[in-house]
Amino acid sequence: MNFHPVRLGIISALREEQTGLIEIMQDVVTTTRGMRDYVSGRLWGIECVCVLSRIGKVAAAATTATLIEKFGVSHILFTGVAGAADSRLRVGDIVVARQLVQHDMNAEPLFPRYEIPLTGLSHFYSDQILSKQLLNAAEEFIRTDFHSAIADYDKQRFRLLQPLVYEGLIASGDEFIAHDEQLRKITDRLQDVLAVEMEGAAVAQVCFEFGIPFAIVRTISDSANEDSPVDFVQFLEKIAAHYAYSIVKRFIALHQSERALT
Ligand code: ADE
C-alpha cells in the first residue's frame, strides 16, 4: 500500500503545450498568484495542478517554487517544445531529460563554468522512475496514438515520418536559438546536448533545492538554426498540443498502475 498521496504539478511555458488538460479536469479550482493561473483538480484519477510558466528561466523558477510552496505538489512534470541540438534529431522527435544544464550560467572565475553557485552542481538529474514512466509514455504514444492523433496533412506539412524518442541532456538558457553560430557556441562546450529550450534546467534546479522529484519531456519543434520553423505557432497547435495531451495521459496511467503495485 502506498500512503503518500500524489499531487502532480504540470508546467508548460505556453498554452498550446498543455492544450486539452484543463478542459477535462474535474473539481477544478483556479487560483491566481504572481500573474499565473494555477488550475487544481483531478486528471485521470490523480490530483493535479496545471500552470503556464511563460517563457524563460526566471518565469519557470518562480512558477516551480510557487507550485511547491503554495500548492504543495509532490511531483513535477514539464511538457513543451525544444530546438534540436544534436543533428540526429528531427522535428517531431521527443526528448525526455535525463540531466539538465543552464548553458548561459557562467560565474567564472568564482565558480567553474555552468556550475550553479553554492550547489557544487552544473547538471541536475531528473527523477529516474518518473523519467522512465515518461519515456515509456512517449514511446507508447508514438507506437499507438501518433498516426491517428496527427492529421495526415500536418504530418506532411511538418515532414513527420516515424518520430523517435530519445533520453539525454537538455540545455536551457534565456535565449531562443535560431542561428547555427548560436547553437555551436553551446554544443562546442556541451557536446552531449540533445535539445535546447528556455525553462527545463531552472525547474530542475528548484526541484533539486526543494527535494521534489521531476521529469521533463520536449517535442522537437525546430532545428535551432536558420531553417527554424516553418510555422512555430502552427506546430504548437497542430502537433505539440496532441503530443503533450497523449503523453501526459499515458504517463499518468503508467504512474498510477506502478504505484498500485508498490
Ligand atoms: N524552444 C523551442 N525551440 C527553441 C529554440 N530553438 N531555442 C530555444 N528554445 C526553444
TrEMBL record:
Pfam families: PNP_UDP_1. Residues 8-253 form the Nucleoside phosphorylase domain. It is an enzyme of class 3 (hydrolase). GO terms for biological process: L-methionine salvage from methylthioadenosine; L-methionine salvage from S-adenosylmethionine; nucleoside catabolic process. Its EC number is 3.2.2.9. One of its GO terms (molecular function) is adenosylhomocysteine nucleosidase activity. This is adenosylhomocysteine nucleosidase. The gene is mtnN.
